[in-house]
From TrEMBL:
PANTHER family reported for this sequence: 2-NITROPROPANE DIOXYGENASE
Protein name: Probable nitronate monooxygenase
Species of origin: Gallintestinimicrobium propionicum
Function of the molecule: Nitronate monooxygenase that uses molecular oxygen to catalyze the oxidative denitrification of alkyl nitronates. Acts on propionate 3-nitronate (P3N), the presumed physiological substrate. Probably functions in the detoxification of P3N, a metabolic poison produced by plants and fungi as a defense mechanism.
Molecular functions (GO terms): nitronate monooxygenase activity
Length: 351
């Protein structure tokens, strides 16, 4: 395998972090299985409490309760594994969720969908590892400089999420449609990180993710200089994935032309599987939100075409015709249900 990679105080046995997928796609089952196999398992905190009885009345309380429960269940699967949370900056009550992740004893927090500039202040005096998710050198430079100047802190690791990732994307629609040469951007980010490694006097591991679907693609990212890879969509069609079987079937049935760019209700571009729900959205035939679950900071229920929380919950529960199915660019390649062990061996065997 590649040189040793540390996530905070723990050493990864395999150079892979599983990407966080909300709502409810990467919970304890998937994250625990990845950690058990030697990777880093990531639980998505995004509306994680959607199955809790109090979710509709008090989503924040439900989410906090579920964060603790899911991490505990994942620990039972992988007692010595590396487990953490993906917490989006764009979430309402961001700091509350960050502090809960610390309280639960998570090993790390990865944070994107915005710039996690104040994250170090929220975890000061703790040993939890923190990592920003970045898509470009400019944002990386801003975070590194800010953390250093204000907090005298450097990331424990960094996740680069490329244009072939699923869900909300850190690129303009124009960039995504033009199929940018992202290898150059990765190289620029890596050069920048190496400068800050000298300042920190320690290694800052870098994960590269987005569209990594096979060993050849994994090897390519390692060749560019990545220390580990981040993989998400490939894990959806595993037995251990927490999504409903109908959700997984939608991936198995998807063809290349079914993977499309979409506009999120909050104005960000994303990537998803075309289905009747998206067709209704395009025609303006979906019902406007009747209730707000307070998930994202910059969401105005009076102005958006549909509630993204409701759409994602419908999908993960198995109503794939009336839900939103976020997906990476290579998601259509899935053709069978595998185990997490199978996927990791296929991606990393011999590395």
């Amino acid at each position: 395998m590649k040189s040793q990679v540390w996530i905070g105080k723990k050493r990864l046995k395999k150079p892979l972090i599983q990407g966080g997928m909300g709502i409810g796609v990467s919970l304890s089952g998937l994250a625990g299985a990845v950690a058990k196999e030697g990777g880093a398992g990531t639980i998505s905190a995004a509306q994680i409490g959607f199955l809790q009885p109090e979710f509709e009345q008090n989503p924040v309380l439900a989410n906090l309760k579920a964060m603790e429960e899911e991490l505990q269940k994942a620990r039972k699967i992988a007692p010595d594994g590396i487990l953490g949370f993906n917490i989006m900056v764009a979430m309402n009550h961001y700091e509350t969720y960050v502090r809960k992740a610390v309280e639960t004893g998570a090993d790390f927090i990865v944070s994107g969908a915005g710039l996690p500039l104040e994250l170090p202040a929220m975890v000061s005096d703790t040993d939890i590892a923190i990592a920003p998710i970045v898509s470009g050198a400019r944002a990386t430079a801003l975070i590194l400089k800010y953390w250093e100047k204000k907090y005298h802190r450097y990331p424990d690791f960094i996740v680069i999420e490329g244009p072939e990732a699923g869900g909300h994307l850190g690129f303009s629609r124009k960039q995504l449609e033009e199929k940018m040469d992202y290898d150059m951007e990765i190289s620029e980010i890596l050069k920048l990180v190496r400068v800050y490694e000298k300042k920190a006097e320690r290694k800052i591991p870098v994960a590269v993710g987005g569209g990594i679907c096979d060993k050849a693609r994994a090897e390519h990212e390692f060749m560019l200089g990545a220390d580990l890879i981040q993989v998400a969509s490939r894990f959806i069609t595993t037995k251990e994935c927490d999504a409903d079987s109908a959700y997984k079937d939608a991936y198995l049935k998807a063809q290349k032309e079914d993977i499309v760019l979409v506009s999120s209700p909050v104005g960000m571009p994303g990537r998803a599987i075309r289905n009747p729900f998206l067709e209704h959205v395009e025609k303006g035939e979906v019902q406007r939100p009747q209730k707000c679950f307070g998930c994202l900071k910059h969401c105005n229920p009076a102005e958006i075409p549909y509630c993204i929380t409701e759409a994602l919950i419908h999908a993960v529960k198995g109503d794939t015709e009336n839900g939103l199915l976020f997906c990476g660019a290579q998601g259509f390649l899935a053709n069978q249900i595998e185990t997490v062990q199978d996927v990791m061996e296929d991606l990393l065997g011999g590395l």
